[in-house]
Amino acid sequence: QNTKTPINEYFDQWLNIKKNKVKPSTYSGYKIHIEKHFKPFFKDFYLETITSTDIERYLSSKLDDGLSAQTVKSHRSTLRTIFSFAYKHNDVKENLVKKTDAVKTDKFDYHTLSFAEILRLLEVAKCLNDYPPVLLSSLLGLRRSEALGLRWKDINFEKRVAYIRSTYVRTYDVEGHKNNLVLSESTKNASSRRSIPLSDFVVSELKKIKQQQSERAKSPKYSKQNLEYVCLGKYGGLINPQNLSRHFKKILKDNDFDTSVRFHDLRHSCATFLHEEFGFDLKDVSLYLGHSDVKTTGNIYIHGKVNKKIADTINNNLKSCYSILPKVC
Fold first, then answer.
1. What's the Rg (C-alpha) of the chain?
2. Phi and psi at residue 237, to the nearest 5°
3. How many angstroms separate the CA atoms of 326 and 329, rounded?
4. Which of 152, 140, 142 has its CA nearest to residue 201?
5. CB under 8 Å to 169, separation ≥6 — which residues?
């Protein structure tokens, strides 16, 4: 009697167990890896007889297919997670993925804007629908998903604090072959769930944005169902993350900025000017950005409470520039 387990069946079992234990975006990523990549390659393999060489062949084949090293590295991470689960539950004798070579990736070349360039960016973006997320990412260092997931109830104007506790993320429906956008009541990790002190300028701008939304909502064309969100499109719709990144590139191109700057680089820019221009140490910047490890801040971006002096320093540097900074459009 054949008691061996087809590995594709095991993939399905593992995915079903993970469905309600991970964030929707994480589950979506796992499902894409399994359905589009793992299953076609491993269709004739069994869990009990697969070898590390087989896994090496899979990783090599994906690089040969033209997938980026970063993507294949993500595939290896998912396989490692699956085999770690299998080893923990005595379904395999060892985690074979640990015996495979790590996928080497080139260090990403980040492009940042100086504080002066950020001020000019805010000026040229002030009347655009994308101004709110640009403001939040450049001065608060929010990730794109954090900015788009920010709701008015997350902002305490009296205490001058923004609470980062949810994200707006894209997931992929493999069966329906379509993207879905969902609000996740969680952040990238525990450290990302944080409170950020707000400068006078940011408080003022957020109040203007809220007032502008109230005025726009009087139009019958304006959707009323998303008024709890800070970042909305012209007619009240939630902003698609990919569209935001594409529109951001156009802002850069139309105003003679470095077009190699990505929207996420606004977060890098914030970290850089806080550390290099304003002199805050890496620990303070790490807490401000919600990193779990100060090494991430130091190596890539240039627990306790976020240093309130960050908001004060940003505010002081903005004071002399109020005349050029955004007004209600």
1. 23
2. -80, 155
3. 8
4. 140
5. 23, 24, 25, 145, 149, 181, 182, 184, 241
Q: Which two tokens stand for residue 241?
A: 């993350």
**Quick one: DSSP state of residue 303?**
-
Say how many C-beta atoms besides its own lie within 10 A of residue 318's C-beta.
19
pLDDT of residue 298: 46
> Which DSSP letter does residue 36 get?
I
**34-92 per-position pLDDT tens digit:** 999 999 999 999 999 999 999 999 999 999 998 888 899 999 999 999 999 999 999 99
pLDDT of 107-130, one tens digit each? 666 789 999 999 999 999 998 999
Six-digit token string for 206: 């957020």
For the chain, where are the alpha helices, taking DSSP H only?
7-18, 24-32, 39-42, 52-64, 69-88, 115-125, 131-140, 144-149, 200-216, 241-254, 265-272, 282-289, 294-296, 309-319
Place of tokens 């940003």: 314
